Structure formats: structure tokens, C-alpha cells
Amino acid sequence: MQEKKFSYRRLMFTTFVISGCSMVYELLISSVSSYLLGDSILQFSITIGLYMCAMGLGSYLSKFIKTQLFDWFIFVEISVGILGGTSSILLFLANVYLESYSLVMYSEIVLIGTLVGLEIPLLTRIIEENAGNLRITLSSIFSFDYIGGLAGSIAFPLLLLPQLGYFSTAFLVGAMNLGISLFILYSYRRYIGRTALWKIIIYISGAGMILGMLFSENLASGIEQGLYRDKVIYSEQTPYQKLVLTKHKDDVRLYINGNIQFSSMDEYRYHEVLVHVPMSAAKKREKVLILGGGDGLAVREVLKYKEVQQIDLVDLDAGVTELCRSHKDIKKLNEGSLDRAKLKIYNEDAYEFLENNAGKALYDVILVDMPDPNSETVNKLYTDLFYRLCSRNLSDEGVMAVQSTSPYYAGDAFWCIHETVKQEMPFVYPYHVQVPSFGDWGFQLASKTEIQIENLTLQQEGKFLTQDNLQGIFLFGEDERSKKELEVNSLSSPKLLQYYLEAEKNWE
């Protein structure tokens, strides 16, 4: 009786661990696919749906396993450990070297899901045979299964991914599955027929997982190099996103989640029109708010105005601001702007900052320099409600500029942002500039009072932007104008995300 109770507890622990591992694999495949392909809603939906279906298939197949349950369970755990442990690296390799990334992704989901679907039915039958009482067995095993799933879903975003990254997380969790198979092997060896063979496979596979963890940075560096044109000189997974810095001769480029943020060769074009147009249109320039712009390049341009007394920079990711404050190549590019006395950095959500600051202090100029709206998270920062909060934080004579994607490559998205800003600001003036590393890139100039664009005098000329070409940035070619009625982007109806993702597919 005592041995049955002890065996029962050890198998409950097993259930808890393998359930957590299963959840991490599901989240890993979804996250890697979102990082490589974009459209996180689609990737998570496909992964979850297909994974659940494959688990159902595995549960169905379990009925054909009638004997040697422990041997089968060890086989399943070894297989899950190997497939899950190598899942991230195989997806990255597929993206770099194969055209059929989706085939590899779907194959991983189906294989891992099917094997995971075998786990609980096998454990249930093992526990029933050793402990008896089907009612208690089912209630206990599903309780530990659900709790383990919760543990995995919490550990992945808060601990595993930020601290270990995609590769080490997969190898670690794969090693955990292999560890469980070894734990079962030693705990129930009298029920198992091929102990010597299983030990050899487990030890060899486990050694592979450990080596993978130890050399994950080298593997990541080698594979990531295939994702980028230039040499990767810095790579970091922050709690929020993947940062990669590349360099080729004098060209330094920053990528966030695979999307280029700037090239040192032409970033001045982007930042000159983002900053100097609204700064020239504003009647006062004492207090400036920059939302996003953690690279410090917009701050560099704002600091050219002597009348500026205060600059507040709000960027969620401290990893970005610290990288751009300390890395010698970026610090040289932004001229050490992130260390200036006039600047105060807030590493918090821009949406929450605006909510908390509303009514406390008004700004003369607000610069919205957010990443493109390629996910539901960033889409929130392009909604009518977000621009309403911007308006509440802007003085009556203040001016705002909004980064708005490309009017040529993502025309519907650009004009959707235009219409959304118009919902909250009485006067909105679209403009754009050609940035070689980006293409044709657009902005919105918005204010509560009318701006005489044709009489606008540039207060600060740059390498690109001068008084002579100022009027030209407000002119659009016929192929860049909106051809249809576009809906306003809101929290409840993220139309902008839909327009942006459609544009991405059209230009693939």
C-alpha cells in the first residue's frame, strides 16, 4: 500500500512537468513563427488549433497500445524531448535555407502534438494499474496536468524567453522531458523491458541538449547571420523583443524582431522630417514628448533647438535605451543624446504614460515614433483612443507628428492612420520622404489649430531637409493617394493591423 502511494505521487509530479513542457513547446513554435513571419494572431491561432487537433489524434492512437505501457511512455518522452528540444533551431534553419518553412512548422506541431496526446492516456492507465480507483486517478491527473500547463505558460514569457532566448529554452525543456524519462526508468525499472537501450538513448540525447544550451549563443549567432545581410555585432532577447545590431563598413543597422529600425547611412532623412517639420510648425518648443524613439536619434534632432528645456522620452523596453545609450556605434550616431541633462527617460508603456500624465503637464510638441503596426500589441498605439490621449497631453497650440508607415508599399495602412488621427485632431497634414533603406516613408502632422503649410518656415535645416524642398514633402503622387474609403482604427476593431498585414503579403 505504501509503495502504491509513493508511486502515485511520483507520477503526479511527472504529469505536472510534462504538461508544463508541452505548453512551452506550443508557445515556442508560435513565438518563433511570429518573429520570423509576423502576424502573431495567425501564428498562435494555427499553432494552438493544430496542436490541439494533433493531441486528439495522439489520444485516439493510444488505444492501440495495449502492453508495455512504461516502455511506450519512455519512448514518447524521449521523442518529445528530442523534437521539442530542437524545434526552435529547426524553425530558424528552415526560414534561412528552405522555401517551405510552413511545412516544417506544421510537421513539428503535428508530431509533438501527437506525442503529447499520448502522454496523459498512458499515464492514466499506468496510475490506474498501480493505484487503482479510476475516479481518483482521473481527477488527480487532470488537476496536475492543468496546473503544469499554467506553470509553463507563466514561466515562458516571464522567465524562460527573456533569460534564455529561443534556443536555450527549447534545449532546456527538451532536457526536462528526457529527465522525466530517466526518472521513470529508475523509479519503475522492474516494469520496463529495455532499460539498457533506453539509458543509452537518454544519455546521448541529454548530452546533446546540454551541449545545445552551452553553445546556444554560438548557434544563434551563426543562424541569425543568415537572416541578415550584414555581420551581426550584437544580439539580445529582452523581456519584450529581440534586438539585433548589424554592421557593414560604416553602415550600422538596428533590427527589432527582425524589422529594421534604422540604417546609419540614411536615418537622418527620416529623423529630420519627423522632428523638424513639427518643431517648425509649433509656436513654442520648450517641452517635447517623444513616444518610442529609444534609439535617441529623434532626441539628437530635438536638442538642436536651444529653446527646448525638457524632453521626455517614453520607450517600453529598457534594453533598447540602454543599448543605444552605451553601444559605441549608436552612441556616436545619436551624439550621446540619451545622456543629456534635458532628457528624462521613462521605460514604461506609452499608453499608460499618457493616461497617467493627462491633465498634469502639457507638451508643446509630441513625436510619435513607434514601430510599424505589425502586431496587435503595437496596433494599440495607433488607435483613435491613443491619439485622443495624445491630444489631451498636447497644449492648445501644440503640434504632433506620427510615424505612419509607407504611403506606397502600405498605402491603406498609411491613410488609415491619417483618418484615425483626424478623428481626434482637427487639422492633419500628411507628408512623406524617400529613405533608401525603408523606401517611401510617411508621417502625419497634426494640430488643434490650423497650420499654413504653404507658409511654413523651417527653423532648422539638415543634411536633407531644407527650406527649398520643404513643400515637396507634402506632395503625393497619384499612385500614393487613397483610392477607397478606409475605416478608423480602434481597440475593438483593429482595421489598421489588417491593412498592414495585407500590404506585407502583397509585397512578399
TrEMBL record:
- State its location(s): Cell membrane
> Has the keyword Transmembrane helix been applied to this entry?
yes
Q: Where are the transmembrane segments?
A: 12-35, 41-61, 73-97, 103-124, 136-160, 166-185, 197-215
Kindly report the protein's main subcellular placement as a broad class. Answer: membrane
Could you confirm whether the keyword Cell membrane appears in this record?
yes
Q: How does it sit in the membrane?
A: Multi-pass membrane protein
Pathway membership of this protein? Amine and polyamine biosynthesis; spermidine biosynthesis; spermidine from putrescine: step 1/1
Residue ranges of coiled coil: none
Question: Which keywords are on file for this protein?
Answer: Cell membrane, Membrane, Polyamine biosynthesis, Spermidine biosynthesis, Transferase, Transmembrane, Transmembrane helix
> Under which name does UniProt file this protein?
Polyamine aminopropyltransferase
**Which species does this protein come from?**
Blautia hansenii DSM 20583
The top of its lineage is: Bacteria, Bacillati, Bacillota, Clostridia, Lachnospirales
